[in-house]
Structures are given as structure tokens and as C-alpha cells.
């Protein structure tokens, strides 16, 4: 059985991680690898061609069936350095989300005290 994660990663590398389609596929795979750290906007699906979308859906289906596999962890580890700029943005977004959640928690606690 073919590994959909590997096929998707190979497609992204083939079209180029610096292209709209390739970077979108890489970001999707990173999201499957760790969705909290690497969020993915589904509206970006349109940046991939028909083959890319087919492979992306196959990767999502494999994730739904098998979860985070050793192959996906390996791909995630390989993609992280190649997507350094994107990862910096993800880190900033994660920090911002955590700060907002913390603020909401404090606001709820204050409201309960009143």
C-alpha cells in the first residue's frame, strides 16, 4: 500500500516548496503532523492543481484512518527546516492565540468574582 503522506510530500517537493501549490501541500502535511502548531486554512486548497488536491485529500483520508504515523512524523521533521519562514509565522500565531486564550480566562475569572 502506498503512503499518501509520502506521495503528497513528493508532489510538493516536485512542484517546489516555493510555489503556491507546493507550499500549500507542505503546510497541509505540517498541519496533519501538528495542527496546533501549524494551522491550515482550507480556503488555500485552491492554490493546488487537481493532482495536488487529489493527493491532499488522500493524505487527509490516511490521517483519518491511521492518525499520526511514523511516516508522517518523518515528513513533518523534514518539512520544518524547509518551511522556516512559515514556521516563524506559525510560532507567532500560536503565541498570539495562547495570549488571547489566557486573557479570556482572566476575564472569565474576573467576571465570576464580581
Describe the secondary structure blueprint for this structure.
Elements: H1 4-15, H2 20-33, H3 50-66, H4 70-82, H5 84-113
Helix pairs in contact: 1-2, 1-3, 2-3, 2-4
Question: TL;DR?
Answer:
The protein is mostly helical and 114 residues long.
So what's the oligomer here?
single chain
Gyration radius from CA atoms, angstroms: 17 Å
Mean pLDDT: 90
- DSSP, total strands: 0
Order of helices and strands: HHHHH
Number of helices: 5
How would you sum up this structure, described in words?
The structure is a single chain. With 114 residues, the chain is mostly helical. Helices cover 75% and strands 0% of the residues. Helix 1 packs antiparallel against helix 2 and helix 1 runs antiparallel to helix 3. The chain is elongated.
Label this structure with key terms.
114 residues, mainly alpha, 5 helices, 75% helix, elongated
